């Protein structure tokens, strides 16, 4: 992709309403724009980041036995009456009537709809177990949307639902999801903790939250300084719930995932029963497993930035390489740049090529702002077939002679060194 | 994917409210389930079909210079007041107030929002031309949702928007989109026609519709029996608008795409101006280009079925191959099946393996119903290392000796023969 024709406008200053680091950086780096408070539009590069996050989630969900579906945003309110959650969910659910007077809502979560879907076709123990998941837009009427993609009225979630014949089956599904979540957040380069949590409005018997420590976090991660135990809790200092020691560290954290053993709450209230091997009708045992997909963009930037901008983890970066041609009017620089761009493209390396006619200083600043991990800088040494390779994370610069060195080997070494 | 653990329930009979062929087949083949009238849930195999359709669209939009974005479903009503379409669009737009009393809507289309996005960052002729597109869920309060995915309250569209400095630029963008649409619908195996059309509520100077003839179509495609000209129009017979001859054929057709030259309708009303080379402020020249993504599933099935079920075009099929093991209790059949499944998987061929413990007749019927183009049937001849390969389209069956023949070569020959 050539930046001169790519819709990637960067900003020197973030708008005043952006207060936290990730929000400022995602606006300045041209990832998103705000439509109204809590509603964001993804620009081309922001969508690339979102897609990479979604890919990691899909790979790990599929590997854990999940099957992807796509449910609707529109839900009939009567389903929420069936489950008994209509009043509990309250005003946070966006509601409207259609022209025929039917009471509808926009899904803030999908336990009701997935139970409706499952009861269409699940009849027998032979149809179980099954784990269904989707990556889909959710809606909440937030009174105080804020922090960019962290607290929104419209946002993207991955929600998965497991259906089992008994508690042992649920234990297996829950454990498979727990492991998948650990792989997902690790691959994203996140420092995170999985802690026991309340089941709250979801109901059920067991639940775990995945928390990412970050200054803007609205949850609390408590770490015992003595035994290292990690748990959640209230803002006031507590003694460790594990070893009883008094000294704990309290970190603000962003909730990026939450998994629940639901049991039979929805299958009993919404009539999702199956015939067991012995011919008896039993309620299906369910679990549900959420990840805040769009929120992860914020969480990753919160943990991967410096004063110059974003530093994308390799698996999340919108492009593998940023190729910077310092002076696009210089024939030698353009010749060398074109060769590199074509060669890397053929090798399947995704490259953003900064071929814009701007001052070198502006281009260096933009390069560090948008945070692609490897920068290849083509400057005056191009006449000698030499370019610079810069690591965004360390700032280290190495001069490469293209005649002597295999560029893709150099890039592979860089990638290896970073891991 | 092994069918025994895949959530792919087939139905012998379609529900009574399904009247047209594609609707019946998509329910019977386990692609979708209805939540309420006009709102559908995609099951795992339906989502695979949707994703293949989306991939073709993405590839061709990217090749035509499009850049993918993702806009929001929630839109402030004030944007529609700015463009002057608030009253024109009327009750078909779903509207609600949030808890702070803000008047919001769910986007039935996104000209207003994309113009809002463009005016954030487009300032100069240097920022143009650009074509932005998205694949996203739209909402319409349809009084009479019907025909499965053809007329829905919640549906998926690809909408693209071009931004140019002048009319010549718009002509180029429009023409690039026109060509891309022809490639997209051809790759999907559709018999279709592109015809001149009214600009209607979109405004602008020129427009073309892409129509797919099908018995359930709500539009009309008129073909002159003398000169072959294709055009749209009213239900009453007309003489040919091209050669004037009286004899025309009128076919019901489904609209799958519509492209418009918008001109300055939105840029002038919503203040999207740029500075030209001569330093003068001018309104950006826009075009918009829609494809009914989810509706295409219906359109493709309408044109690709027989009395037994669906016959997927190769590029749309949810799996490349259906592997049918007639008796999963038979050790030789399972041995041969496992080998084929593993080998094809390693070669990147996607395989659905029907390893269900059901009667052969049921499995044959299901195989024809779900419409995967190539069936590999492992039966009693497995003891001699022989399997049958059946073409879903022609019904032709060929016996293959796995010792002598390279299975992947046979499949490649089949694929070639079908094209």
Topology:
The structure is a homodimer of 419-residue chains.
Chain A: H1 21-28, E1 32-36, E2 39-42, H2 44-63, E3 66-68, E4 74-76, H3 77-83, H4 86-89, E5 94-97, E6 103-106, H5 111-121, E7 130-139, E8 154-164, H6 167-187, E9 193-196, E10 206-213, E11 219-224, E12 230-232, E13 248-263, H7 265-269, E14 273-275, E15 281-283, E16 285-292, H8 293-303, E17 305-306, E18 309-310, E19 321-325, H9 331-346, E20 351-354, H10 360-370, E21 374-378, E22 386-391, E23 397-401, H11 407-418
Parallel strand pairs in A: 3-7, 19-20, 19-21
Antiparallel strand pairs in A: 1-2, 4-6, 5-6, 7-8, 8-16, 9-10, 10-13, 11-12, 11-13, 13-16, 14-15, 17-18, 21-22, 22-23
Q: Please report the distance between the alpha carbons of the first and last residues of chain A.
A: 26 Å
Can you give the helix content of chain A as a percent range?
25-40%
Q: CATH H-level name of the largest domain in chain A... which superfamily?
A: Bira Bifunctional Protein, Domain 2
Annotation field: number of helices of chain A: 11
CATH domain fold name of the largest domain in chain A:
BirA Bifunctional Protein, domain 2
Low-confidence stretches of chain A: none
Write down the CATH class of the largest domain in chain A. Answer: Alpha Beta
Number of domains as seen in the coordinates of chain A: 2
Biggest sheet statistics of chain A: 9 strands, mixed
Q: Give the overall silhouette of chain A.
A: elongated
